[in-house]
Design goal:
275 residues, 2 strands, globular, 75% helix
Length: 275
Amino acid sequence: MINPAPVAVSAARPLLSKVPEITALFWVIKVLSTGMGETFSDFLVNHLPPELAVGGGLLLLIASLVAQFRSPRYRVWTYWTAVVMVSIVGTMVADIIDFVVGIPLPLSTLGFAAVLAAIFWLWQRSEKTLSVHSITTPRREAFYWATVLTTFALGTVAGDLTAEKLHLGFGPSALLFAAAIAVPALAHRRLGLGAVAAFWSAYVITRPLGASITDWLASSRADGLGLGTGWVTLAVTVPMLALIAVLARSRTQATRSASEAALAGPEHFTDGKPA
């Protein structure tokens, strides 16, 4: 898995960072959250007045981001709640641009890609690093969440572009993006692609990958299995919440162990192990 290299951080970084460690579990939850956001957004829009669904989603997104920014450090449930809300609202924004505003999918895909490139440029120019290991200040966190929101919108329109406008269907699109997400990892391991570039490349692809999988399961269009957005959302949400709970428990245990070690002091340790 792609883990962007840390940039000039201290041993205390895990207690200060506002984002999770990049592990295999992170990538699994990320893909599940993207798929859940895709189908749950469709479920809400189809079962509620669109104005209520979008307006309520925006309010919950703002509330979740306020909670995330006010948190002094990474908190598992706070962080992943914000990610889920970004996934849901990002889908709604992309659908509004497509179905309401009427911007063609190829153009909106290029537009979101340009916005993402601009955010990366401004972030790099301002902070001199795009590493997620450096998210320890409000400004860097603002760049991070702007990037996350844009990647969700970009991934949504890119997935719709391949499935519908290019007539690949949801199943083949899922296979396409599953293959594509392996490219950054292989390029990082074999071709010397930087860890930060590889991470963000894979991060962008997780969105159309997760969305294509759940669209294939839920949709009755094209090659979809027609299981319904409600049932698919539930089927994805349950394991996602279970895995987040595992993260929260391990985070609590790690924090407790670090606190106990700090209270014990270095005199209680020999060669990095308890005396």
